[in-house]
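Long-time lurker, first post. I've been practising inverse folding by hand and with some scripts of my own, and I keep getting stuck on stretches where the structure tokens seem ambiguous. Below is the full token string for one chain I'm working on. Before anyone asks, I'm not after the true native sequence, just a reasonable design that respects the backbone. If someone could post their per-position residues I'd love to compare against what I wrote down in my notebook.
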């Protein structure tokens, strides 16, 4: 529609400009010059050119092809005889501009605007066709997109039903398109992975409680039965009760350790991660263990680089270092040197606790992080066999890489943390 309006304005300007030019001829030379100018234009006129007519004030036409009509200045529309550029059987549709030259003469200049009307119809037809195509494509595209969307929803539903039926390893297949459904599927898969981790942790706790606490509970029961059948005095009963209380405390400690490890392995503690100063934590613990090491005749030394920080749980990191120091103290003879070092290497933080004790055979090093596993040489020392399991769990939570190395002689634990440990 804007194109038609622009063409109409252009056509009116063309007609009016020529009419004013002819009026100038009349003003300068009167009727003779005007007639000569009109005659020249008619001679050179091609199909589609302008039409000219000169009328007296009484309506008598002096020259031209335009039909007589009531004389008044301005624009009007009328039909005229065909000049060759119309479709067969159609008249010219003229846009005419009338101008009064003098009290006695009127000039009319017009042009066939049938082309504009036909162009308008063509644009309208093209618009209708384009609109129809757009609607068709939109409907077709909508149906196609809807069908694809429903297929993917069905796939998600089938996966959910399979998981409900017990196949918890099922995951929603991603298309890799990165669209909303793909992102939703990825989030659901991540949620299912998290649920799987929590279920594994629960299963491990259940297994540990069922199997690993069965033996000490059996010993406790046997001890109480012996006390009931053999004790003959109040002192013997009191001794049996005290022993049972100590055994119960040990079982409770073991149970708490199992739950703590399960909680750590579930990853729930990550929510409390903060930026912590690892240098301060390690230095403080080494200092606090100084009197204990001296009492147990161990030689405790430390080399701690200042200002090293990581993202983590302060309480858990504290427990990790305590367990490593306890392990070194418990499984080495008097006079054994124990060294603690903390350094930053190539963007990673390396924590080492090493001793010059008897060490652990290479074949057993991979198993020392298993729950309740105890090396043959350490079976006579106190402990539940969960200390290093907790070290492994805390290290894993902080995305630390833990190694058990030969210290020649002795054993070295090396844990490498990222400077942004735990920031997943």
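-- Answer (accepted) --
I ran through it position by position. Result:
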């Amino acid at each position: 529609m804007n194109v038609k309006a622009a063409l109409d304005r252009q056509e009116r300007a063309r007609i009016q400009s020529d009419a004013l030019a002819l009026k100038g001829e009349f003003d300068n030379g009167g009727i003779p010059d005007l007639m000569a100018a009109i005659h020249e234009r008619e001679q050179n006129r091609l199909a589609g050119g302008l039409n000219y007519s000169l009328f007296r004030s009484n309506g008598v036409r002096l020259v031209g092809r335009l039909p007589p009509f009531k004389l008044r200045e301005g624009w009007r529309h009328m039909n005229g005889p065909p000049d060759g550029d119309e479709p067969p059987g159609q008249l010219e549709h003229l846009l005419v501009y009338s101008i009064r030259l003098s009290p006695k003469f009127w000039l009319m200049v017009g042009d066939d605007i049938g082309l504009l009307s036909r162009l308008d119809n063509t644009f309208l037809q093209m618009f209708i066709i384009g609109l129809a195509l757009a609607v068709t494509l939109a409907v077709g595209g909508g149906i196609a997109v809807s069908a694809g969307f429903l297929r993917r929803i069905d796939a998600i539903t089938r996966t959910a039903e399979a998981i409900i039926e017990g196949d918890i390893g099922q995951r929603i297949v991603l298309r890799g398109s990165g669209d909303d459904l793909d992102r939703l599927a990825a989030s659901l898969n991540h949620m299912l992975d998290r649920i799987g981790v929590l279920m594994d942790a629960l299963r491990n706790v259940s297994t540990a409680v069922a199997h690993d606490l069965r033996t000490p509970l059996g010993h406790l029961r046997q001890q109480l039965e012996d006390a009931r059948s053999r004790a003959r005095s109040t002192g013997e009963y009191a001794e049996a009760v005290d022993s049972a209380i100590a055994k119960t405390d040990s079982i409770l400690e073991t149970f708490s350790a199992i739950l703590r490890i399960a909680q750590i392995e579930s990853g729930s503690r990550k929510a409390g991660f903060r930026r912590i100063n690892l240098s301060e934590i390690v230095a403080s613990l080494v200092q606090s263990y100084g009197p204990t090491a001296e009492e147990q005749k161990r030689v405790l030394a430390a080399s701690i680089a200042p200002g090293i920080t990581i993202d983590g749980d302060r309480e858990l990191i504290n427990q990790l270092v305590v367990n490593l120091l306890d392990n070194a103290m418990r499984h080495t003879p008097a006079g054994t040197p124990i060294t603690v070092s903390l350094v930053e290497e190539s963007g990673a933080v390396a924590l080492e606790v090493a001793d010059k004790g008897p060490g652990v055979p290479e074949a057993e090093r991979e198993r020392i992080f298993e729950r309740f596993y105890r090396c043959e040489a350490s079976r006579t020392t106190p402990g539940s066999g969960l200390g290093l399991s907790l070290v492994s769990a805390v290290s894993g939570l902080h995305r630390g890489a833990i190694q058990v190395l030969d210290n020649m002689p002795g054993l070295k634990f090396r844990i490498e943390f990222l400077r942004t440990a735990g920031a997943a």
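A couple of notes from the structure itself: The two ends are 58 Å apart (CA to CA). The mean pLDDT is 80. Happy to go over any region you disagree with.
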